[in-house]
Design goal:
The structure is a single chain. The protein has helices spanning 15-26, 33-43, 47-53, 72-80, 84-102, 112-115, 131-142, 149-168, 184-187, 189-202; strands at 4-9, 29-31, 105-108, 122-128, 180-183. With 204 residues, it is α/β, with parallel strands linked by helices. Strands 2-3-1-4-5 form a five-stranded parallel β-sheet, sandwiched between helices. The protein is globular and about 45 Å long.
């Protein structure tokens, strides 16, 4: 049985919903917003900044978050001479490693598949779907915006891929880096949950 499941996902594929349901079915801890909270407590960074910068390449200035960094975050960046993004990566990696040691869990995104790649009890999953499925889903969930749904998908996934490549040296979404690649558009959200949870229970 796999004790750790990492869920990487295309924007709009339902990966976050799938991850939460898998955690509930298996009785595992679920780390998504909870991970952001942990990193915020350790760094003093605004959780909004961590949520955006911890997984995506920059699309706007850090100053748009009105962040005079507080707590340990400011000192560590200054002392180590690290960029804010690199410091955040180091702290995020530290938190993910710590959470994985606490017990069975599902972790969403944030390069967790790469960070935990050497653990034999970790199952790494990539959730994807075709553009039409994802575009329809983000409009239903998040509403319309000035950008087309297709442009929103391209922006989010593009920045996620750049961030992943920068910190891991690997191509985001490439099948060989995951144990299971699953199409939520074809299988449906509930079937994806069943497949992932079932695989985790009976393998590993």
């Amino acid at each position: 049985m796999y004790n750790i499941i990492t869920i990487s996902r295309q924007f709009g594929s339902g990966g976050r919903s799938i991850a939460k349901s898998v955690a509930e079915e298996l009785g595992y801890a679920y780390y998504d917003k909870e991970l952001i909270k942990e990193v915020a407590e350790k760094t003093g960074f605004d959780p909004r900044y961590i949520e955006e910068a911890g997984e995506y390449a920059k699309s706007r200035s850090i100053f748009s978050y009105a962040l005079p960094f507080t707590g340990s975050g400011h000192g560590a960046v200054g002392a180590g001479g690290m960029s804010t993004s690199d410091f955040l990566w180091v702290m995020q990696r530290k938190v993910i490693l710590e959470l994985a040691e606490k017990g069975p869990c599902v972790i969403v995104g944030r390069c967790a598949d790469y960070i935990l790649r050497e653990r034999t009890d970790a199952l790494h999953v990539f959730v994807h779907a075709d553009e039409a499925f994802r575009a329809d889903r983000i409009v239903r969930l998040y509403g319309e915006s000035e950008k087309s749904p297709e442009a929103r998908l391209k922006d989010k996934d593009g920045r996620r891929a750049v961030n992943y490549k920068y910190y891991t040296g690997r191509e985001w979404g490439k099948a060989e880096f995951y144990d299971l690649s699953i199409n939520s558009g074809k299988l449906g959200i509930e079937n994806c949950v069943s497949v992932i949870a079932g695989f985790a229970k009976h393998n590993g």
